[in-house]
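hiii, so i know i said id send this last week but things got crazy w the move. better late than never?? heres the sequnce for the chain we talked about at the cafe, plus the structure i predicted for it. fair warning i was half asleep when i ran it
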Amino acid sequence: MNNKPVFTSFEEIDHRLKILKLQRQIEMEQIKMHVQEAKNSFVPTALIGSMGKWSKRLFITFITRKILKKLS
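okay and structure toks below
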């Protein structure tokens, strides 16, 4: 159950440390990308766009009800 790597030289240790450093940098860039995507989804134009879809549905429902009331 001991999953510790066994190194036979300092070169192997240095190589593994470089790999871990690069993996960490990749993960940090992915986090930055996700944060930026989250920020972009809360931009006022994005919010207005989603509100526009909602308001169109509400308006269509309102008009449909008014027409149906006049016809009945």
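btw Residues 48-72 form one domain. thought thatd interest u
miss u guys!!
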